[in-house]
Design a protein that fits this description.
Layout: H1 4-15, H2 18-22, H3 26-61
Length: 67
Amino acid sequence: AFNTQACEQLNSWLGGFESIMKRMTPSNFNWFIHSIIFYHTQQVIKWQNSQKFSIISEDFEHDDGLL
């Protein structure tokens, strides 16, 4: 069960590094791809957490004081 849309987005993002990766040795490529995917994952998690916080903040701003 893969998230095809997420895979396509990641592949598109990695495409920006294609010219750099073409010139790498296999061991450098492996290190680079693992490092850049780790970095990307950390950024996505940060973004998701900020979105959750934003939604929670909006809920409190729209609280009608019914509780």
